[in-house]
Write the structure tokens for this entry.
Amino acid sequence: MRRSLLAILLIFVCPLSAALGDVSESSFHLECNGIKPIDVPDFKKLAEESASVNRKLCEALLNPFEGGSRSALIASEAQRRRSLLHFAKISRAQAIRIENVVSIENFERPFTHLKEKLNQGDINSLALPGFSVDRDTDGSFIFHFNERSKSARIHMVDNDACKAKFEVTCEELLKEYRRAFIQYKSAYSKLTTQRALDQIEVLSQNWRDFILSARSQTLWDLGLTTKLESAHFKQGYLVGPPRKQWFFLHPNVIYEHLSDAPDGFQTKPGIALEVIGINYWRKGDSPFYWPFGVSLTSSFVDRPESDDVGIGLMFHVDNRYSLGASHYGGGKTGFFLTIDLLNAINDKRKFFEGYRDQMLD
């Protein structure tokens, strides 16, 4: 009997991913596939790679929860980092076309910095580097990836060599290189600016819904939820509430009926402890068409001629109603309803602060 109860619990803890709804926090209207390379005659390969990376970053930002599972998120992030590092390699290779014609002082320095920068963090928290061309006091041109101390230099005397090979000055050539390079982050720049505005409103509403609608939780529940959903909270950017609530040693006041009990003791109040439980608080994430959860419980009801402690399952419907069954010795089974006193006395906003701290930690 106990094994059967545990098996039923596991079925609901591990639902089929196909049953889950859309997990995106919000929707933005940008056609990532429509991003095309800009027209630059001297750096076509760089422009093509820049547009390709631009599309990938655009899609990643529009689908921040792609894959859903922790392993899928890690794999996606690793793939994006490889794309960025490959882009850094192409950027250097295309700049060598200039270096083959003119002498560039400290050529490797900015590209080493670019590689290190693109290998840091994730795209949602990383300030992606741009490309700058500045004229120095001696008339030479310096270029860098938004870090002047990591710049390289082309002297004015090399302008004739640039004109002979590329038919433009070195400054104009570097500006053409810049146009090809910075396209890789254009969608990122637009989305992160717009997203900061749109997502604040969307996430605020999602957290309001969570505070008002989700099941009440104790500090034990909060700790377990933040641990098991850590991949959600540690994504490097603002996120909404977790899709699942977890419960550990969560107390409930129950009203249970045991037909095999002596007259006068069949329907009694008691305590049910959710040993471990899960709740899909939002309809879109539930395996059913309404918020749903299930918990493995240990119940205590004081009755004569019957065990006081039973083990069973509790089912949670629409975050408000909980009912279940407890198995006692001698083949006796009781059925109960719960009274969620915690929902009446808990200040859920304090628990929101606990979730918020996990995102900011």
Q: What stands out?
A: Residues 1-29 have pLDDT under 50 and may be disordered. Residues 215-360 form one domain. The longest helix spans residues 70-99.
